[in-house]
Amino acid sequence: MAPPAASTIDRLGVHDSVSAVFPPEVLATALEDLSLSVSVIGDDEIADCDAVVTLEHREAYLDCAWIHSIQAGVDRFPIDEFEAAGVGLTNSSGIHGRPIGESVASYLLAFARRLHDHVAHQQERRWARPAWDEAFTLSGATACVVGTGTLGQGVAAVLGPLGLEVIGVRRSSEPLPAFDEMYANDDLLEAIADADFVIATVPLTDDTHHLFDEGVFDAMGDDAYLVNVARGPVVDEAALVAALESDSLAGAALDVFEEEPLPADSPLWDIEEVIVTPHAAGFTQDYYRGVADLVRENVERLESDEAFVNRVV
């Protein structure tokens, strides 16, 4: 698809919703060398902009020419409405692989080396060593990464050097670098059967909603851990809680949830072998630089009448 005409975009707004991830001012400053006018905006200033960089959706975006999401996932945007209105939508796919990969590695290391227990004990000023058979090393363990896009490949690139065997699950069983073995989606239950860690990195679609359900948890070993760094609704949380409380799974590390923030009465807060993080696995001090690079490249493509990179609509 061709980008919007360069003549239709004069002012680029950095919506203040990005403040949930980084200060909007740092991104606006990083983009101040563009030929466009760039400023931080709130909801009441969207109408004055031709393009907006944002975390959240607003109905007023349907009157803009181009919207850029600072996340890779675009499930919060009404794709059909954007398409009908002729609004270009791009995302930040490609910048999150390494941070997500390192976050996943930190979860796995925490479980293996019992770091989450030690942190909890520190809060209680309690000197308590793990049982002789609790701690383990990651070398020789198997991680099954479900979803082999940017996030999944970033996870595989970090876990492989730690000595794990990394299995991938995607549409086809064609091999990819950094994965030791590949399964097609239809063979998911076979792929996860012997995995020590099952890691969700799939986008949220109709097909992946509650992909990780009771059947998947039954197929996993009772000594296996689930990690979700994708989107909350790809996991059936009620089924996950039931599996954890019945010791059908060893534990879970969850960065995303069906409802965010995670409600205070969620049982996930209190299950001993669950690590909860606040949708922050992709956070890094360089986040805004990656977004700036993508926006800058697309402005240059806009001016040379080339197709946008990371175009969704």
UniProtKB/TrEMBL annotation:
What keywords are assigned to this protein?
A: NAD, Oxidoreductase
Q: Which domain of life is it from?
A: Archaea
Which Pfam families would you find in this protein's record? 2-Hacid_dh_C (PF02826)
Keyword NAD part of the UniProt annotation? yes
Coiled coil ranges (UniProt) are none
Is Oxidoreductase given among the entry's keywords?
Answer: yes
Under Gene Ontology molecular function, one entry of this record is: oxidoreductase activity
Domain D-isomer specific 2-hydroxyacid dehydrogenase NAD-binding positions: 106-281
Q: Which PANTHER family does UniProt cross-reference here?
A: 2-HACID_DH_C DOMAIN-CONTAINING PROTEIN (PTHR43333), D-ISOMER SPECIFIC 2-HYDROXYACID DEHYDROGENASE NAD-BINDING DOMAIN-CONTAINING PROTEIN (PTHR43333:SF1)
Q: Which NCBIfam families match?
A: Dhydh_Halo
Q: What is this protein called?
A: Hydroxyacid dehydrogenase
According to the entry, what is the taxonomic lineage of the organism? Archaea, Methanobacteriati, Methanobacteriota, Stenosarchaea group, Halobacteria
